[in-house]
Each structure stands twice: as C-alpha cells, then as structure tokens.
Amino acid sequence: MKEVLVIEDEQIIRQGLKVLLEQVIGGIQVIEAKSGEEGITRIHQRLPHLIITDIRMGAMDGLTFIGKARQVSKDIPIIILSGHNDFEYARTALRYGITDYLLKPVNRIELSEVISKVFKTNESNNDGTSTQFQKILQFIDDHLSQEITLKMIAEHVYLHPQYIGQLFKTELNQTFTDYLTNKRIKYAQKLLRQTHLKVYEVAQLSGYKSAKHFMTLFKQEVGMTPIQYRQSL
After folding, report:
1. DSSP states of 9-57 as a string?
2. In this structure, is the dihedral angle defined by the CA atoms of residues 222, 225, 230 and 232, taken in order, positive or negative?
3. What integer pLDDT is reported at residue 149 of this predicted model?
4. 64 shares a domain with 46
C-alpha cells in the first residue's frame, strides 16, 4: 500500500482527490493535510511515498512548503496541482525538483498516468536496495567499530535523519537500531570464529564500549554467551 500525502486547503477538492486515489486508482492510502504547516508536520511524523500539493494556499503556499519538504528529503516525488496556469510558478517549482505540474480541475486519467509513472520509476530504480541506501549500508560497514548514529549517517549522505530511519523500514522492514545490532553481533561472531581475541576486544571492535552490555546483547541474539559460542565451534 502506497502512502500519498495530499495537501489542499479546500475540503471538497481534498476529499475528491482522496476518493480518486483510494477508490478509483487503488492501492493507495491518502494522508490528508489542509495546510502547508500541517503537511510539514505529517512529513516529520511519517514520510509518504508521494506528495500531491496545491500551489496557492494560505499562510504557507505550495512553493514554501516544497522548500521545507526538500529539507527533509530531496527524493520524495512531488506533484503540484494549481488552478492557475502560471508559468512563473511552474518554473520556480521545477527548481525544487518536482515530478509534475497539473492544472485543476484534475484530469483523473492524466493524474493516474503520472502516479503510475512515479511508482514504476521508484520500483525500477530500487533493484532490491537503492544506490542511496547502499551508501548508507556501506557507511555502517566502514564504521562498525565506532559509534554510529542516524545524525552521523545523515551528515555523510546529506539526508534528514528521520528519512534515513524510514528507509530502513521501507527497504529492510526493520528499524535502524535492530539492523545495527544484528550487524554488530554477526561481526562479533566472525571475530570469535576467526581470531583468538579476548571477549572485551571483540566487543570493542564490534562497536561496544561496555563488554558487559555486549555480552548481554550477544546472549539475547545468539542464545549463548560469547565464550560458549566460541567453545561450540
């Protein structure tokens, strides 16, 4: 199920889009927002697969919203809807890397085609895991013995920490913390198999400053202590 954030200050239009997306096109869950401010709040709560936004709203217009949305993620597809055939608005919007620009009243066939193209493009670029996500996983591999936080990764790949956290759920169906723990414990198992390092040394190389904490996690994940694991080989 794809999640689409619809930002539209006119309730009738917003509800019409919801029906069109959920019941006519299908396979979509609509998240509604009646203003740009509410839209930004929604994005921080959960990143959608696609954003559809009106361009002229109240306090925060569509372009301001898009600028703020791009600070969270540069990659979320965005479709702009506007009742104004305004070339300057369209040209400005293109600078933010929008996916398409459609005029109201919305042509349901045209919108369906654009959405279908967006989702097919995302899937074809995904090959299991995206290139962007591969960079994140490589960063973790390269720094496994060090402290790793979402903020550190975000600074390395120029993405918002929350977006990276969402990527782990989307790409691997697990949290960043669970992935990192699993990766560290697997590396610890490798060290226990292939070296004669002491347990506290294995803990440090696996990214754990506390040997006690490492041994507790190891037993939870593997079902035996590091020493028992080594003796069982």
Report:
1. S-HHHHHHHHHIIIIII-SEEEEEESSHHHHHHHHHH---SEEEEESS-
2. negative
3. 95
4. yes
